[in-house]
């Protein structure tokens, strides 16, 4: 049995596909509440009476807020976010710094604002929403360590019902389109005004965050909070591309174009799946040098040589079985398509400026049976436990993938450095 096959069969998801229950405004028995009036139940912005504090814990928290393009992230005080049915309140320990956040911050990807970014997190379970399914509470008891995936499946839509969590209808219709969770409301409200602030995924760049339970997996004590945060996006995205879109098999020749946080994770996943030739392509020698340690058998600096020609030279003139574009630029989109052999797969995972177009030679695509595949991420319920096993076994080196850690207060600077291209690999913000 092939190694990828062993990975795929290692863990079976036991999460039940249970529809999210209707929104409840009844006070939780283990928190301090004032009564909530009928008018407050129907209000998008809760009144002061509806806010609560954790038993023996704080009544508010801090989070980094994106206001609009061109303005820096600021730290603001929020009322403690309240989980609803089948949602979990997490005390955030670490949050990764991702290019997807940066696209939002720069205004390249339209998103509701103001919002809290940050979408790959680890943390500790603090509370469950009222009326949550008992199996969820048993799986994630209060005090347990968890990791959260950025694609947060509802568990009950047509795609989730077929196991295609990465295409969850509610995630795209509510979170990505409106910045809310799946009742159409955010969980974040400013302490000074009560005004709502939207959520990019769970809004993880915060001291506490609310996450739909289907997006979580238990993090074993053997894995550290900080480095494990990247499992929820960088590694998660790479795994989705390699396992589902590319369907990597042992012996495949692979090229990865763009060796950032996600691209470098693709190298490690390709190695774990038994790829024979793994070609890293970038324009920075520092990133390419690190790529060798992460599994690359060949490195190509596209600023010094013709990347497509060099890839074909390495593969005896044929091209690779699978090329992965992890940067999100029209130029690299074309390079990705041109780098694959006849019948090969070009997998696109890099996000870019909204509305950007990638060109392709139609006749070459048709005659040579080139497959161009988009891949946004993996499938939380099935795949996140597998990624944890990969990290536990050492087949995926988390420490090598994380190139920088910083304090919560330094998160705005980390995004500036990411924009300048000075972060090789992944940066992680340590929050608590």
TrEMBL record:
From the Swiss-Prot or TrEMBL record, give the protein name: Enoyl reductase (ER) domain-containing protein
Concerning its family, UniProt says: Belongs to the zinc-containing alcohol dehydrogenase family.
> Out of the domains of life, which is the source?
Eukaryota
Provide the alphabetized UniProt keywords: Metal-binding, NAD, Oxidoreductase, Zinc
Per its UniProt record, what SUPFAM superfamilies does this chain match?
GroES-like (SSF50129), NAD(P)-binding Rossmann-fold domains (SSF51735)
Kindly name one Pfam family recorded for this protein: ADH_zinc_N
What positions does the domain Enoyl reductase (ER) occupy?
70-429
| Species | Solanum commersonii (Commerson's wild potato)
Q: Which cofactor does it need?
A: Zn(2+)
**Which sequence ranges are marked TM in the entry?**
none
Gene Ontology molecular function terms on file: oxidoreductase activity; zinc ion binding
PROSITE patterns (UniProt xref): ADH_ZINC (PS00059)
């Amino acid at each position: 049995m092939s190694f990828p096959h062993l990975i795929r069969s290692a863990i079976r998801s036991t999460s039940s596909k249970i529809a999210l229950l209707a929104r409840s405004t009844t006070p939780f028995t283990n928190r301090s509440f004032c009564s909530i009036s009928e008018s407050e139940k129907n209000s998008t912005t809760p009144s002061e009476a509806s806010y609560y504090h954790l038993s023996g814990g704080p009544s508010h928290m801090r989070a980094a807020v994106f206001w609009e393009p061109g303005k820096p992230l600021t730290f603001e005080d929020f009322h403690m976010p309240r989980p609803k049915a089948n949602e979990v309140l997490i005390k955030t320990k670490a949050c990764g710094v991702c290019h997807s956040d940066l696209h939002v911050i720069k205004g390249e990807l339209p998103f509701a604002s103001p919002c809290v970014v940050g979408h790959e997190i680890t943390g500790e379970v603090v509370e469950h929403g009222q009326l949550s399914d008992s199996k969820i509470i048993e799986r994630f008891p209060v005090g347990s360590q968890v990791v959260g995936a950025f694609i947060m499946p509802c568990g009950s839509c047509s795609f989730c019902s077929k196991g295609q969590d990465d295409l969850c209808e509610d995630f795209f219709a509510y979170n990505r389109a409106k910045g809310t969770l799946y009742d159409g409301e955010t969980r974040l409200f400013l302490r000074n005004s009560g005004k709502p602030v939207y959520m990019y995924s769970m809004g993880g760049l915060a001291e506490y965050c609310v996450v739909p339970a289907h997006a979580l997996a238990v993090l074993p004590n053997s894995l550290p909070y900080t480095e494990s945060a990247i499992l929820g996006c960088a590694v998660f995205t790479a795994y989705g591309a390699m396992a589902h879109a590319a369907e990597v098999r042992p012996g495949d020749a692979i090229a990865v174009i763009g060796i950032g946080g996600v691209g470098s994770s693709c190298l490690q996943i390709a190695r774990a799946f038994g790829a024979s030739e793994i070609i890293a392509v970038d324009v920075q020698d520092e990133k390419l040098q690190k790529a060798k340690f992460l599994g690359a058998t060949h490195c190509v600096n596209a600023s010094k040589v013709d990347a497509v020609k060099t890839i074909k030279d390495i593969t005896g003139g044929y091209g690779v079985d699978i090329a992965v574009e992890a940067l999100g630029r029209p130029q690299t989109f074309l390079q990705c398509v041109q780098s694959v052999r006849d019948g090969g797969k070009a997998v696109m995972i890099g996000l870019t400026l909204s509305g950007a177009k990638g060109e392709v030679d139609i006749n070459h695509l048709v005659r040579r049976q080139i497959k161009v595949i988009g891949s946004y991420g993996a499938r939380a319920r099935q795949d996140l436990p597998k990624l944890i096993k990969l990290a536990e076994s050492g087949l995926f080196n988390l420490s090598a993938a994380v190139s920088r850690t910083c304090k919560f207060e330094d998160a705005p600077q980390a995004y500036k450095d990411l924009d300048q291209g000075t972060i090789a690999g992944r940066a992680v913000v340590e929050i608590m």
